[in-house]
């Protein structure tokens, strides 16, 4: 009969093997890793390269881009804010100005999203480190089983307690990964909602 430690080692190795087969072993999410969002995916007009980044040169645009890239939701107050901002833009400059604003919102959202992705990868590296500790401890216990009767029972009990603690930490952190993986997705959904609202004012 297989020992409990053998089952634990088998499950851990299968988990690590599945992760290692991913294009990026530090990316644990079921969602495909897209390093950066492109404006063309979420904005109906082509943003010319000549205006890329120019939103930073205008205090009003920069402030609005900051506000709209950091929303929890597009509620009535945010819709009113966008409407008031757009009505101040002359019609002949509206397309140009909104393209610059959309560029800023996407840029700032990508920065925030990059922090989420870096955090997820850092979390995964920590999981890999814990898994390595578990694997080493399991191998140590397996060798002690082979040499049954010649070891110190109290030492084996201490090692098993350490193993169980590491396993609990690993399992708890694995459950938390899903919520971490949702953060970039939620940001993308909010970005799309903001830009949809803004795009209604394009001439």
The number of distinct structural domains comes to: 1
Low-confidence stretches: 1-11
Topology, number of strands: 0
How far is the N terminus from the C terminus? 73 Å
Nearest-integer average pLDDT = 85
Order of helical and strand elements: HHHHHH
Rg value:
26 Å
Q: How much of the residues is beta strand, in percent? A: under 5%
Largest sheet: none
Task: Count helical runs.
Answer: 6
Structural notes for this entry:
18% of the residues are buried. The chain is elongated. The protein is mainly alpha-helical.
Please sum up the structure shown.
The protein has 203 residues and is mainly alpha-helical. It has 6 helices and no strands.
Write the layout of secondary structure elements.
Elements: H1 4-20, H2 39-42, H3 59-68, H4 76-87, H5 91-146, H6 153-199
Key features of this structure:
203 residues; disordered N terminus
């Amino acid at each position: 009969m297989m020992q409990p430690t053998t089952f634990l080692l088998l499950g851990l190795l299968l988990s690590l093997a599945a992760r290692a087969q991913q294009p990026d072993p530090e990316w644990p999410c079921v969602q495909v890793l897209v390093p950066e969002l492109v404006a063309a995916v979420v904005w109906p007009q082509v943003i010319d390269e000549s205006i890329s980044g120019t939103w930073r040169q205008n205090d009003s645009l920069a402030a609005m881009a900051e506000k709209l890239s950091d929303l929890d939701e597009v509620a009535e107050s945010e819709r009113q804010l966008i409407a008031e901002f757009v009505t101040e833009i002359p019609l002949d400059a509206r397309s140009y100005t909104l393209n610059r604003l959309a560029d800023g919102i996407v840029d700032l959202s990508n920065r925030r999203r990059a922090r989420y992705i870096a955090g997820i990868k850092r979390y995964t590296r920590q999981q890999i480190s814990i898994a390595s500790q578990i694997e080493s401890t399991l191998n140590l216990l397996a060798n002690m089983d082979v040499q049954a009767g010649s070891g110190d029972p109290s030492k084996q009990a201490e090692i098993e307690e350490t193993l169980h603690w590491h396993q609990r930490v690993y399992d708890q952190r694995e459950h938390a990964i899903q919520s971490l993986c949702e953060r970039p997705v939620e940001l993308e959904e909010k970005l799309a909602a903001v830009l949809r609202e803004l795009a209604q004012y394009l001439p």
